[in-house]
Write a structure and sequence with these properties.
By secondary structure, the protein is mainly α. The chain is built from 4 helices and 2 strands, in the order αββααα.
Length: 93
């Protein structure tokens, strides 16, 4: 994300104001933001490619989800257990 886009997003998050594309009037909103990335934002901050203040605005609640490669064995087991449990609850074991 460009530095200009980061500044605009930060301004929106802090003030709740934005301009529509091509617009001249300021619009105020109250919004919640859910964001996700596959980038190492800490590394990008260290390199100066991502704003630290924007990072702290976005990182209020962090949920770490391992990649599919890291959870392949676990997901197979949990699918088997889930299938077994759902079959038992419907009386089809």
């Amino acid at each position: 994300m460009s530095a200009e886009a980061q500044a605009k997003l930060l301004r929106f998050l802090e003030e709740g104001e934005f301009y529509r594309v091509g617009g001249t009037r300021v619009h105020k909103v109250s919004a919640r933001v859910v964001s996700a990335t596959n980038k190492d934002l800490r590394g990008l901050i260290d390199k100066g490619l991502f704003r630290e203040d924007l990072y702290y605005r976005l990182a209020v609640v962090k949920v770490g989800i391992p990649s599919l490669n890291d959870r392949r064995k676990t997901s197979c087991r949990s699918r088997a257990i889930t299938s077994w449990n759902s079959a038992g609850s419907s009386g089809r074991r």
